[in-house]
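Q: What would this chain look like folded?
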Amino acid sequence: MSRMKELYQKQITKELMDKFKFQNVNQVPKITKVVVNAGVGRAVQNSKFLDDTIKAMTKVTGQAPVVTKAKKSIAGFKIREGMKIGTSVTLRGERMYEFLDRLVSISLPRVRDFRGLNSAGFDGQGNYNIGIKEHGVFPEISFEEANPPIGMQINITTTAKKDEVGKALLAGLGFPFRS
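A: My prediction, written as C-alpha cells:
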C-alpha cells in the first residue's frame, strides 16, 4: 500500500469527519481518479513529437497513454478531423496514489519559482486541475529527454461536493496550496 493511501485511511478520514461533521465514513470524500493529458500540437508537422510524448507519459505515469484525435478541423491550426493531437492517461487505485505521492513530494518542489498551488484550480464540485509547463520536473525524466518540454494537464477527480471539502482533502494529503 502506498504512503498516501495509508495516510488517507489512517489519519485524513478522521480529520475530515471531525472538521465537516460527517456522520458516516462513506461520506468522507476520496480521490476516484487522476487524468493526465498532454496536447501535442507540434505533432501536426512532425510525428516524432507524438512518439516522444507517448514515451514520456509512459515513464511519468507508469501506464501506456491513449492517443487522442481531433474532433473538428481547425484551419488556423492546420488540424484536420481525426489527426492525432495528444495523449491521455487515466490512473486509478495504487498507481494513482503513487503518482500523486511523487507529484507532491518530488515533482512540485522541483518546479522553478514554485510558491504553492493556486486554489482557483477547483471546478465548483471539489475536483482540482493542475497545469505543468515542463515534464522535466518528474524524476523519471532525465534532462536530455526533457527537450523539447511537454506541458501536462493533471485533473484530480474527487467525490467531494464542494471545493472547500475537496481542498481540505488534498491539503491533508500534502498538496501545498498558497495561503
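The chain has four helices and five strands.
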